[in-house]
């Protein structure tokens, strides 16, 4: 890749100025070029310059330094007018994917099948990349609540439903033409979209008072009572909060057991995603707990809501809206991100303009008074007899 | 065409429009000038003949038959009779067509050829026989155009029009073939006389006839100007690049003047007429200066 590909000209029409410089230099060269003349008195010139003199260093065409300065000044000035922007070394294209990890993505793609909509969408994305990208193109995978990952494929754990259900993709993602959404339903406003589609997925859609609500495709029916879930307060929960936790568990029908036996152990801490090393730990968001009311009654209500929201949805329960059919598949790869960007360094045009000014000053600086030294001769001119006269 | 040939831009002869009329006008002008100076005589036509027009001091080597013994007896000094030529006098015109004659502008060969045809016309007027001899140039031998009825100018013009300045052989190639000049009452030599051995010309002078030499140099050869130069000798193909200053130009002129002065000295000593001039001079002016002297 040549260096010129890394430069962007703000005013490319200024390239015409370079033609002027070429014309001027060509004119100067023509003016300075020695005229090749036939002569019959070459022997006399030999006598004048010294026998055998052909071309000495002093006699070669001499381009005065002022002419060079003038030329360099013109060149720098012209380039300054062009206003170049040096670019970073261009890299390969970057495809960015926003993964939808809402519960619907982990439903079967087909009724009775084992492939999830997530897996199907990811497979389509990889096939699409194989078609459109070239080896070396980068891929970035994003999802809510996780750091972006640059890899050929997203992390394996993303293929499993998160412990806490994620909301659907935010609307601001849709309009980004450089972002490809991996989801199950087609979104018209999305810049890039890989939609898996999918058939309706029958099953539990909600849990209500210890019973699951089962959707059979037409009606929602109550199931038999569900087995209670066992919970336990962690070490970080103590005092009034531990007492409240016990009341809350009893009222919700959860079995309050020891921390080692509990299906879910609650802890105060950062984040809602839970401890990735221990999926049984339910973290209560610290920020929310700091905003609790000082009124004891209201404080208890607020804590009850926090504990309700923190409890993971029972496995297999997915809302009816998400279980509905996702329609047909859709593929529209988003535009790859170009990593070629103007460098934020010192603007080159400013330096070029300064260089042009300095060259111009040098070229037009008053002479010190001495003229060019006479052309040096190799030796004293021989006499006429030595010049080969035939007389 | 080679690069060498392409650089020699004035190696051919082209006849300017109205040239023949100019030659006719020149003939009339020279005749009138000759009459005003010498009455009925024409100075440049003096030579061996029957009509006595005067006397002049004897020069060593001249034909003793032309010596006026009566004057020698009376004055004790040798004088020869000067007579007007008669019809049938032989003129030989020697033209250098070596490559250096292609130097210009204006081309030396061009100007010399114009003078040659003018001489041819004057020979017509004088009822003389003309032999035009071109130096060998790039060829093996000199080329000759001879005409017993030389009134037709188209013949020498066509002959010269096909001539091209080339090669290294100048007038010296003619002097090496004396048979071409045998019997000539007048010999006219035209060339640049650069690197020509003077001995050949001086050998010509030993004959009884008259010798006139026209040395033509290009303006740039006569009076160079300072600046960057890339010179090329068309005969030796040698080149020289030089930044010429005023001082070097002056030195060159001094050297050239020395050479021209040498020719002048030789012409005075050996009694032949030598004229050095620029090829930029019109042929009418050249002929006027060359033949009236």
Characterise the protein shown here.
The complex is a heterodimer of chains A (391) and B (293). By secondary structure, chain A is α/β, with parallel strands linked by helices. Chain A folds into 3 domains: 3-88 and 345-387, no CATH class; 94-200 and 324-332, no CATH class; 228-310, no CATH class. Helices cover 29% and strands 18% of the residues of chain A. Chain A has 9 helices and 16 strands. In chain A, the strands form 4 sheets. A 6-stranded mixed sheet of chain A has the order 6-5-4-7-8-16. In chain A, strands 13-12-14-15 form a 4-stranded parallel sheet. In chain A, a hairpin with a 6-residue loop joins strand 5 (138-142) and strand 6. Chain A is elongated. Chain A starts with 6 loop residues before the first strand and ends in a 27-residue tail after the last helix. Chain B contains 10 helices and 11 strands. Chain B is α/β, with parallel strands linked by helices. In chain B, helix 7 (198-205) links the parallel strand 7 and strand 8. In chain B, helix 2 runs parallel beside helix 10 (283-292). Chain B folds into 2 domains: 3-39 and 89-292, Rossmann fold; 49-84, no CATH class. The radius of gyration of chain B is 20 Å and the shape is globular. Chain A binds chain B through residues 32-49, 53-55, 58-62, 374-375, 381, 384, 387-391, and chain B through 7-9, 100-103, 108, 192, 194-198, 217-218, 220-221, 227-236, 238-243, 245, 247-248, 251-252, 255-256, 258-259, 262-263, 266.
Give a quick summary of the entry.
By secondary structure, chain A is of the alpha/beta class. Chain A has helices spanning 15-32, 42-49, 65-82, 117-132, 240-252, 286-290, 296-310, 320-323, 348-364; strands spanning 7-9, 35-38, 84-86, 94-99, 138-142, 149-150, 179-183, 192-195, 203-208, 211-215, 220-225, 230-233, 255-256, 264-269, 281-285, 330-332.
Instruction: Provide a count of the helices of chain B.
Output: 10
The low-confidence parts of chain B are 1-6, 35-49
Shape of chain B: globular
Topology pattern of chain B, helix = H, strand = E: HHEEHEEHEEHHEHEHEEHEH
- Corresponding CATH superfamily of the largest domain in chain B: von Willebrand factor, type A domain
Q: Measured on Cα atoms, how large is the radius of gyration of chain B?
A: 20 Å
Mean pLDDT of chain A: 77
What is the terminal-to-terminal distance of chain B?
Answer: 42 Å
CATH class type of the largest domain in chain B: Alpha Beta
| Net shape of chain A | elongated
Largest sheet of chain B: 6 strands, mixed
Q: Given the helix and strand composition of chain A, which structural class is it?
A: alpha/beta
Largest β-sheet summary of chain A: 6 strands, mixed
């Amino acid at each position: 890749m040549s260096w010129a590909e890394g430069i962007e000209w703000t005013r490319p029409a200024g390239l015409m100025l370079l033609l002027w410089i070429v014309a001027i230099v060509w004119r100067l060269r023509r003016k300075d070029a020695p005229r090749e003349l036939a002569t019959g008195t070459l022997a006399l010139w030999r006598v004048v310059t010294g026998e055998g003199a052909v071309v000495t260093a002093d006699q070669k065409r001499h381009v005065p330094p002022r002419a060079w300065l003038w030329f360099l000044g013109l060149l720098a000035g012209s380039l300054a007018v062009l206003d170049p922007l040096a670019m970073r070394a261009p890299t390969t294209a970057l495809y960015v994917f926003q993964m939808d990890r809402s519960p619907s993505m982990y439903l079967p793609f087909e009724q009775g099948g084992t492939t999830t909509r997530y897996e199907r969408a990811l497979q389509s994305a990889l096939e699409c990349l194989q078609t459109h990208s070239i080896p070396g193109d980068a891929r970035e995978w994003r999802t809510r609540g996780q750091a972006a990952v640059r890899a050929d494929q997203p992390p394996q754990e993303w293929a499993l439903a998160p412990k806490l259900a994620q909301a659907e993709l935010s609307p601001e993602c849709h309009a980004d033409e450089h972002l490809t959404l991996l989801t199950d339903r087609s979104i018209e406003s999305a810049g890039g979209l890989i939609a898996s589609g999918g058939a309706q997925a029958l099953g539990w859609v909600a849990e209500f008072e210890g019973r699951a609500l089962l959707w059979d495709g037409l009606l929602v029916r109550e199931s038999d009572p569900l087995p209670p879930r066992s919970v336990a307060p962690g070490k970080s929960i103590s005092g009034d909060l531990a007492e409240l936790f016990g009341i809350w568990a009893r009222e919700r029908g959860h079995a309050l057991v020891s921390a080692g036996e509990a299906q879910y152990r609650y802890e105060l801490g950062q984040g809602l995603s839970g401890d990735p090393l221990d999926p049984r730990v339910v973290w209560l968001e610290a920020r929310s707990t700091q905003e609790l009311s000082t009124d004891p009654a209201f404080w208890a209500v607020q804590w009850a809501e926090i504990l309700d929201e923190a409890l993971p949805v029972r496995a297999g329960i997915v809302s009816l809206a998400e279980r509905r059919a996702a329609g047909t598949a859709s593929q529209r790869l988003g535009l790859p991100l170009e990593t070629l960007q103007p460098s934020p360094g010192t603007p080159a045009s400013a330096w070029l303009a300064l260089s042009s000014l300095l060259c111009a000053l040098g070229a037009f600086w008053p002479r010190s008074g001495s003229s060019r030294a006479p052309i040096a001769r190799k030796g004293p001119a021989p006499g006429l007899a030595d010049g080969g006269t035939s007389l | 065409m080679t690069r060498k040939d392409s650089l020699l831009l004035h190696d051919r002869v082209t006849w300017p429009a109205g040239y023949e009329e100019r030659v006719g006008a020149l003939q009339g002008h020279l005749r009138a000038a000759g009459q005003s100076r010498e009455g009925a005589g024409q100075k440049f036509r003096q030579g061996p003949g029957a009509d006595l027009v005067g006397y002049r001091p004897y020069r060593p080597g001249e034909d003793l038959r032309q010596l006026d013994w009566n004057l020698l007896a009376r004055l004790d000094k040798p004088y020869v009779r000067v007579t007007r030529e008669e019809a049938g006098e032989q003129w030989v015109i020697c033209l250098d067509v070596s490559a250096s004659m292609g130097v210009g502008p204006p081309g030396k060969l061009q100007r010399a050829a114009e003078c040659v045809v003018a001489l041819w016309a004057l020979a017509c007027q004088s009822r003389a026989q003309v032999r035009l001899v071109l130096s060998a140039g790039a060829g093996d031998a000199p080329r000759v155009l001879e005409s017993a009825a030389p009134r037709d100018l188209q013949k020498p013009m066509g002959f010269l029009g096909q001539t091209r300045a080339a090669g290294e052989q100048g007038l010296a190639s003619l002097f090496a073939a004396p048979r071409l000049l045998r019997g000539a009452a007048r010999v006219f030599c035209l060339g640049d006389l650069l690197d020509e051995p003077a001995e050949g010309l001086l050998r010509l002078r030993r004959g009884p006839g008259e010798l006139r030499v026209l040395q033509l140099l290009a303006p740039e050869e006569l009076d160079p100007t300072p600046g960057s130069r890339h010179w090329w000798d068309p005969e030796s193909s040698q080149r020289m690049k030089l930044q010429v200053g005023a001082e070097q130009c002056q030195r060159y002129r001094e050297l050239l003047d020395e050479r021209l002065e040498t020719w002048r000295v030789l012409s005075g000593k050996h009694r032949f007429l030598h004229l050095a001039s620029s090829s930029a001079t019109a042929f009418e002016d050249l002929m006027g200066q060359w033949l009236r002297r």
